């Protein structure tokens, strides 16, 4: 069990933290109000292709915080390469700036006819000519869907001014932290499986992608375990014209070779990949579709017989089928076939679905639980959604929120509120931020479950990446194989 010693991706917020920490003598909320009225150009880029009213609506809500307090994959964030040198004794953890970034447009799977505009979109977006890109998009069709409404998915690869290379010191700490996190998840999954399924099957974990905070003081903290999530999709896109993507692609191709070798070693040469129904039926996740295409091609190249089915189709596969589970939604009714046949021992799942469920909730970061059925916790929620009049009232509410969080052991400025269906970024010192969290938590799809406040250990002073807008929140995505 180990980290693949090749490298990985840095998932970074697309806007630095200066606008939240340097308020020029006014309160954070006053500063945020002005930024919402006159947003930085960086915000317009982070929210593209939202423009006009759609942009105004997004920046007034919780979306305002996403490009600076989350490490998203698309326009709201950058991704950069990092490498691992197993012979390097001591890692250079000094801060470095983002050297350059470029825009890259990936055609959605349903977009089979761009009216000859695909090259024009890519060319315009590569240099972030958003006006020209928007003009071309206006000529193309869109669709109604949960994901992939536009004909292109936009990403923002970047590179640091100096490469980030992890040596033995950091690699050893990451390896120990990830092993500990996975051991805990396996234990919790076994408890859940015995309780809900009445039987116990092997963990069958082959690979996963941990997101890890590595800070300038050498702190290592596992944020979450992606089991498995995507990354290999980069081997299925044309990187022509890109200076940056070939570097990331080279790293991912090396890791893909290791993972595919291990899949065949563990599962044999008859493999069925399982994904969400909407991925195959509605083509709603272009990155997952390309991930599947890359895996199928690589498995077949190594002599395996591989196919793909939606999770609702698990009920009809023959007994003894080996299933490779991709990103499944266990709130969906279609997963009941999977869990039923897994518990009966009729299919062998990689990983065990109960472990995959447990990994979705996994973190090594400090968490505070908020149960709205509890009277004291309801009082906290009432504070979060309050709208006091005047600066004095705002300060009083923030002081009470801060006191409650501190008592529960949460001392971070940056907090991720984990709701039933989403993760909401919160800036502790902003009441506007807390009100946006409360509005999201009150939505019908988020009601009923506990809310977890996850403490993000990053501060402007301990981050390894910076930019023209200040230090960038970021996490390192490694590849781990069993």
Description:
With 482 residues, the protein is an alpha+beta fold. Helix 8 crosses helix 13. A hairpin with a 5-residue loop joins strand 9 and strand 10. Strands 1, 2, 3, 8, 9, 10, 20 and 21 form an eight-stranded mixed beta sheet that branches. It has a four-stranded parallel beta sheet with strand order 12-11-13-14, sandwiched between helices. The relative contact order is 0.17. It has a domain at 367-456. The longest helix is centred in the middle third of the chain and has 30 residues, at 168-197. It is built from 16 helices and 21 strands. The chain has helices spanning 18-21, 28-37, 41-47, 52-60, 66-69, 118-126, 130-137, 168-197, 245-267, 277-281, 286-301, 335-343, 353-360, 375-384, 390-407, 431-441; strands spanning 2-3, 7-13, 77-84, 96-101, 104-107, 152-155, 158-160, 165-166, 207-214, 220-226, 270-275, 305-310, 321-325, 347-350, 367-370, 414-418, 423-427, 451-456, 465-466, 474-477, 480-481.
Task: Describe the structure in brief.
By secondary structure, this protein is α+β, with helices and mostly antiparallel strands. The protein is built from 16 helices and 21 strands.
